[in-house]
Amino acid sequence: MSFVAKKQLTLFDWVNYALLALISITCIFPFLYVFSVSFTDPKAYVPLKFYLFPDSWSLSSYKYILSTNSFLNALKSTVFVTVVGTVLNILVSFTMAYALTKKSMPGRGVMLSFVVFTLVFSAGIVPSYLLVKELGLLNSLWALIWPSLTNAWSLIVIKSFLESLPSELEDSGKIDGCSDIGVFLRIVIPLSMPAIAAFTLFFAVSHWNTYFNALIYISDSKKWTLQVLVKTLVVDSDSTGVGQAGAGGDDRVIPQETIRMASIVLSMAPILLIYPFLQKHFAKGVMLGSVKG
User: Per the database record, which ranges form the ABC transmembrane type-1 domain (predicted)?
Assistant: First the structure.
């Protein structure tokens, strides 16, 4: 019969736990404030007052913002960029990474060198803007998708993951008559579902939070993404409401601070709701893609 000695907490442990608790509370309070103000009745809202819980609950802010043309247009743009961009990211990243795992592919070393080079060096903002302009993608949502179909870090991690799969499975597939594309679709892709789930989350979050590229490539307010609209609404001093941020003819009364907080909550909600369902695949996929051996 064995007994495990209970560890005695030292002064350092207590101080460490206290600091971590303080940091956690500091991080949580801004979210609670934004959430609370967004559900506060605009008529009962008092500026510069800290709201941990709404004094008077109301959904009027959400009803208002979901009825404005500007927010709905931004939501449509963001959903389009996120869905289409994520699908294309997964398709391009996994097909290119799979090709780079084949040592017999001509020019493989040169392509890998280019991938690693872009991981270290970047062309910069001006060349990227000129490229998008020459492609005729300015003021187009495709400007947020085509230039970023994949990236060097994703290719290297996915390539490492694919190389960890047993090569005997591919050999058996070819013996059964599968072509290279058949092996990729019927064997490699099913075995890569954890990695696909993980990178789907990576790409989707990246596209959903697209801000800087949308800011410099899209000047038409009707094609703004959610992040640009929320920034214009919350930060810009000359923007006092959703109705003035490209609402396209919405003549409603200027909303109060509750509208701004509601827009922040709505922009965060989809990712916060999706992440718990992909969390286990996220952790497993990242570990499989990063560690080999």
Answer: 75-277
Q: Say which DSSP state 227 is in.
A: H
Residue/partner pairs of 153-158 with CB below 8 Å, 24 or more apart: 153/119, 154/89, 154/93, 154/97, 154/199, 154/202, 154/203, 155/93, 155/96, 155/97, 155/100, 155/115, 156/115, 156/116, 156/119, 157/286, 157/289, 157/290, 158/93, 158/94, 158/97, 158/195, 158/199, 158/289
Alpha carbon 107 to its chain's center? 33
Residues 6+ apart with CB under 8 A from 13: none
pTM of the model: 0.79
For residue 57, report the phi and psi dihedrals to the nearest 5 degrees: -75, 140
Using 50, 70 and 90 to split pLDDT, how confident is the model at 23?
very high
Mean predicted lDDT score pLDDT of the chain: 81
Give the chain's count of helices (H) and strands (E).
13, 0
Q: ∠ CA 145-207-265 to the nearest 5 degrees?
A: 150
Predicted confidence (pLDDT) per residue in 53-102, tens digit: 877 888 888 888 888 888 889 999 999 999 999 999 999 999 999 988 88
Best CA proximity match to 194, nearest among 164, 163, 167, 161: 161
CATH dotted code for 63-166+194-290: 1.10.3720.10
User: What is the domain partition of the chain in residue ranges?
Assistant: 11-58, 63-166+194-290
**pLDDT of 258-292, one tens digit each?**
888 888 888 888 888 877 776 666 666 555 545 44
Question: Which letter does DSSP use for residue 9 in this model?
Answer: P
